[in-house]
Predict the structure of Putative HTH-type transcriptional regulator.
Amino acid sequence: MRQTVTIASRPLPDARQRLRDRIYDAIRDLVERGKLQPGQRLTETHLAARFGVSRTPVREALFQLAREGLLEPLERGYGLLEMPMSGVLARLDVKRLLDPVMTVYVVETASPAQIEQLCQLARDGATALGSEASPFALASGLHRLQKDLAIACSNPVLARCCVAAEDDFLAARPLLLRGEKGRAITADYLDGLMTSLRARCPETAESGARNYIARLVDWCRESDTFPG
């Protein structure tokens, strides 16, 4: 039986923003913080009541999130997209082209403050992988790390492409963090990333990002289904 997700009431952002954008950001925040999971349902009526707005901006925000591939239409409302293996592999193929190059830019040009912040995020992610955190919470932390890596990239065109690819990958990340294998692969990546960032070594940064995605691809192709 599908559940309806409960969203705590809280002040909306700056009133000058368009209502649709504010609702869009709030729903996306739910996903990124692991508060929305497959099987839970978002409805226009529920969200409109929680945020004290009409159903129109809510409908537009949900439609936009569905167009971006983060939500999927259900019989009555929307839910988090349950991505098939083929969708995960397609997204990994794109990230395999972008992420290694982006990481080289970051290692070579990021400021000391940016390097320290990225290392801290990587440390936090590695610690969380060894905890009882849910796949959705783990995915949220990794999503933030990868987006911050893109922000630190000195090539603005590449950075925009990487942010878009990472946003599109958000629904796939929890699937790769359900079992021990995916967590172990990710832990190795984070350890190598911290070493490369601190050493300012573009070669190890590039190979580490490339190997991480290659290992995920190999693991997915060896498995018919994601681990439960």
Notes: The radius of gyration is 18 Å. The beta strands are 3-4, 40-41, 71-74, 77-80. The CA atoms of residues 106 and 153 lie 5 Å apart.
